[in-house]
């Protein structure tokens, strides 16, 4: 257990009723005992809560509830104390100062979770999932984070690693007998195993595309010629949302407002400032720039206005969008102004008909967006990779495994084979943290806030 004891506010600063101050380390119980009056905390069993007062010399600073967690049965694996106090900034600041005076130290960002990792309470990918879970804003991002935190991903990786380790040891055993040309590791079995592992890894890599958009939102671009109604459509989509999230109404537009949660999936309208300001995507001055934006999108809503363009023109616009190779939905706007014959002619394109201004057909459009990205109805067991660091490591693992396969085929010597298997193990281990460097840990945990 760590002998220096860290302290930080675990709850957000702000107007909540209660503030929780957390300590972790060998001295946690003893330090709080010095300023807590009510019970001797050192005599209390783990997972119990005690009422009392926090005192500075004789003065009562606050009435509090103190939760006791005895190592190793705590989040960090160390002694942990949580003090629930009244959430006054003054109380919180003085209490933390008091705890520091009595021997605690202010925690670094992510230090509680770092300790949980170092003490084997969580592996690295689970620790990262804690951050994702706290940051999750939609049902879907919540689901992938909680899956990862509970270890779904880690379990798969551990199994793969164990199988590989067995073979690595067999191959390495051969090195001791190099004169005699023995094979402890059956090459055919090894090939089958590696092919199986590669299969799993490729699926995990492929899941990143879904995992990433679930975590960060599905990037959508609304495209179309000037005045077809792009801004109106975006406003209609956002306005409905605003009815639910009322506290952002009236604020100046920022990125948050451009996110729309549809049935638990977050859609993110990328660079919509551009859409609003230039009012056209296809014919803007920087055609290339806007094309680039469309290519970044996971989905394009192509909006057409039959008051402006005839059916053939719309068709040729669609052909242009199709060339971008990004999934798109063709939407004909201003259906309220549409004459019957033109409507019939447009059916050939199989568009969605809407009126952005009158909020007609917009629900169908939302449904179509969901259907196109195919991200709802996630299976709770689905393991999705959401972290770019993990995909990187998986790709490197895959590379090493390919070398192992090539090595088996060209019957390279055991030492080369062993080296590539060890490489693959190394990269797999980077994900869960069985292999980690101080730099890597720094990089991950410094992104956490203080108190987490
Ligand atoms: P943008 O240039 O594509 O962003 O187009 P705007 O959203 O600025 O809309 C251009 C014009 O079309 C505005 O006057 C809108 O009020 C109008 N408009 C948008 N949607 C509809 C609709 O569904 N029906 C009708 N009649 N007019 C619409
Ligand atoms: Zn516009």
Automatic annotation (TrEMBL):
Pfam families: MMR_HSR1 (PF01926), MnmE_helical (PF12631), TrmE_N (PF10396). Residues 217-374 form the TrmE-type G domain. GTP binds at residues 227-232, 246-252, 271-274. Its cofactor is K(+). Its main location: cytoplasm. One of its GO terms (molecular function) is metal ion binding. (6S)-5-formyl-5,6,7,8-tetrahydrofolate binds at residues 22, 82, 121, 452. InterPro entries: G_TrmE, GTP-bd, GTP-bd_TrmE_N, GTPase_MnmE, MnmE_dom2, MnmE_helical, P-loop_NTPase, Small_GTP-bd. GO terms for biological process: tRNA methylation; tRNA wobble uridine modification. GO terms for cellular component: cytosol. Its EC number is 3.6.-.-. SUPFAM superfamilies: P-loop containing nucleoside triphosphate hydrolases (SSF52540), TrmE connector domain (SSF116878). It comes from the Bacteria. CDD domains: trmE, TrmE_N. Mg(2+) binds at residues 231, 252. It is found in: Cytoplasm. Exhibits a very high intrinsic GTPase hydrolysis rate. Involved in the addition of a carboxymethylaminomethyl (cmnm) group at the wobble position (U34) of certain tRNAs, forming tRNA-cmnm(5)s(2)U34. Homodimer. Heterotetramer of two MnmE and two MnmG subunits. Belongs to the TRAFAC class TrmE-Era-EngA-EngB-Septin-like GTPase superfamily. TrmE GTPase family. This is tRNA modification GTPase MnmE. The gene is mnmE.
